[in-house]
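pasting for the record
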Amino acid sequence: MAPQQQFHVLAVDDSIIDRKLIERLLKTSSYQVTVVDSGSKALEFLGLNEDEQMDQDVSSVLPSDHQQDLEVNLIITDYWMPGMTGYELLRKIKQSKSLKDIPVVIMSSENVPSRINRCLKEGAEEFFLKPVQMSDVNKLKPHLLRGRAMEDEPIINKIEATLEVI
């Protein structure tokens, strides 16, 4: 019997201290974790070229199995990073046909209500204040389970349709 597949979380933060903290918390909760230090590296890891919206042939440049081998079930990102903010990363993910259903959580050391509301309106599942704690990590499970249920829905529909024929 195969072990249950671990959830895979992509953690994005330019601060090495915060990256190590979130990585440790996630691994303690039995998540598989990949950490990167910028929004652009997160997009690269996800196989999303920044020019995807302009050039639909970009998928031919990347290995076709890139997304399957490195399936990400949730992204947790710092809000304030040089180059690309967590908010900009969130928008790019939610605008992507292939990534829009991946839950995104934003974290920040600054408690700015307008920033929090903007992120939540744009599609963030949660907004955590740093330092992230185990109680925050425990809030991720429902988002991961819902994301997995959405992935399984087409399979379940096919099984139900097959059973109706039989």
